[in-house]
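Quick check before the chapter quiz. The format below is the same one you will see on the exam, so make sure you can read both the input and the output lines.
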Amino acid sequence: MGISEINHTHAMPPRIPIRYTFGNHMHWVDMEWLWGYSVLPGSVRDMLRFCEETGAKGCVNFDGVGYEKMASEAPESLADLRASVQAGIVEPVGCSYGQPYGLFQGGESNVRQRVYGVRAVLRLLGARPRVLWEEEFDFFPQLPQILASCGFEFGSLYFQWTWHTPEVPLEAPPAVWWEAPDGSRLLAATRNRWNLHQWPEDFALLLDDLASGDSVPADPLLIQQWLELMPSSDWMCRSELMIPMLRRLLADERFSVQMGTLGEHLDGIRKDVGDERIPVRRYGMEDVWHGMSLGKNGDRMRQVSAAVEQSILEAETLAALLSLFGRPYAQWDVYPVWEIEEAWRELLAAQHHDNDECEGLCGHVGMASYRRASELAAGVRGHQVRGMSRSAGRFPMESLLINTLGWGCARQPLGGRGRPLPKSLEVPAMGWVAFRMGADEPPRLRRRKTRNGYRFSTASFAVDLITPEDAGCLLDIGGALELGLGDIQCKVGGSICRTSITEEASPDRTSVFVRLGSPDWPNEDWASVTSYLTSSSDGLCQVWVNCHPLEGEPDPGMNAGWQLPFRPRFPVAHIYADYPYGTYEVKPSGIRRRKYPTGDWMTSEQWFEEIENPFTSLSFVDFVGEDGSGVLVIHDGTKQWFLDEGGRVRALLGMVDPWDEDLATASCEALYRIIPHGPITNSERHRQSMRFRADHSRWLSADYDRKSASLPASFSALQCSAGNVVPTAFYREDEGYSGRDLEEYVGRGMGYPFVLRLVEFDGIECEAEITLPGPIASAFKSNLLGEPLIALAAEPADPPPGNSPEAAALFEWQKVRVPVRPFEIVTLYLDLVPGRKQPRDLDAKRSVWATVHRAQP
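Here is the expected output.
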């Protein structure tokens, strides 16, 4: 059904055309948790009333998990919604599974958010999503590519202010081409002066503006309004309040109001204006502001999310690898599809924006989902490891050290007893290597006294702990970067706290205790900061910082929170940070605003603070000089940073968020790995970051008995010839479920297709040769849903490095050549014959069950 026009019966001068649409935003996460089962059914009912009484057409923006819950809890309401979608009255938009702030979640989490969400909408509403429009800030530069690869055509860059204060550039035209780094585009409605929030008062201001007639454009303007319809007296957005406002606009005889969904309006604008006349925008991170309270409660939600994502990625990769070796399987079937996908569903729901934004209200439920996701992934990992150890003797003298990353990594084994190995092991890509037990500890820190403190060193790095009497302590890492541990600041009563320092050390780490006190309490400690300087498994420098108030809390707001200075000791030419599946150069972003309540979050007055030159980092910040050398800082979840002069930055470790009321805390802990380096590429930065997360989750190992083992002592399943292309995920799907609502699905006929994700990070077009265990019966480059792009031919190949002779002989190794665009996120679907399900002839064992109940005692 197309755009409908509200006609007026009597003659009048030519009227000014206005396009109107709305987005009704609601979700199962948080809203049903707090208000009960009636939320989504009530929102559907109120939305359809709004449409019926005004003639409006618009968009429904529920979370994918919400549609699934409606199917079981309110099927009659879901049927009404489905009927309205089929009739063209409303259009599903956004359609992520858990409505995340995508900028703060991993690249693969963002992919699964869209894939699982599209699957849910196709299955339950019978419609193919084509429009991104989320009420909450859902932006990062690679997002248009991910969405286009799921079949999206359109989007909107208007995000409503609720608890957060997002900003994207204001635009004059109603739509632009929003372009990703790889060149993928969505036709996106813009943030402009015709955007409306969900309040009748905001609509009244728009009506006054239109009544003046001074600034109404000649071209059709597009009014986008966000609604959060819930017919409850305990809520402020209800159709009864919004219907009179829209009727006033319809009654104004100067305007011709066209009703349509956002997709219909954008399609109409494209046809009216023409593709070439629509401006192209490739927004950078310096152009936008998320408006969130990052650092709140020590960023614990984001730290846990990253750790659980890593655990699931490891579980699914290990299960896919072991399925290549046939029976006996580590679990009942060839691959634990449901367990892994249920872990993803729990993780994706926990990543919901309200668990981030409204942590004090519903974060405890989100944490329960994180725990369940983690437990499911741990269960799969445990099954696989036990399966690998199944043939081990009673006292195995060896272990398998497992690497689920897509490239070989040097690794010092941990956990055994005896003398340490003379050097670390090279663990091959997506595989394992056997080693004899006896490795014990990572390289120890050597400690010696210096004039101003102590020097700690290993073969890989040297750190000076400087503790002069007249200044706070700092860590000087290799003469390249200073961490101002004694300069960690927060504000109490508007005053910056000062510090005093004590230091202790042990053979493998040093502990620096920093006491903070307010100038108003000169003889009284107020808070403690503990920092551990350690070495990682391969001898790299790591710093763990814990900040804990001993009494009270810092002042509210980001500017008052715990801030850790990072001060490069060389001229910085560039600073790089990452976002999901991409990298950007940090640039000053100016003054941004963040708002908070003065008391009760729902009813109290709000206040603003100004944030100067903020920038975000998903997992790393790299300080780089003119010659390309620098210092890479990798972290476990410190998302908010501030840019100072001279290439210096501050990390926001923790802050008190008034939105969380009495559950807010500034206690925090953060882990950093600091790597001085020569010239490196973005792909290497991401490899180092992914390696850190694998190290942080502890690498997997399994017992191994060389005499009776069914697995080879050394194995690698993958080789990627292009250094600029990084493998990021390897898993399997169930063709019957994943492809059920798609006309074309390349996994059809494969049973349990293997899926391999690759990301090009350096902006270099190439052809990547991917070597895998074969024969490869079929291979496709596809979109993210598994719909075909091109078929790939398999050809003979040498085994990847790291395979033992017996492993090399087990498979018919083959490779496929994959064309890769700059910054492309590539998905391959593969039918690897060794991994095909091997059914058992259980009929031959019927006698075990069929008559045993008749056996005589």
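If your answer matched, good. Confidence is low (pLDDT under 50) at residues 414-422.
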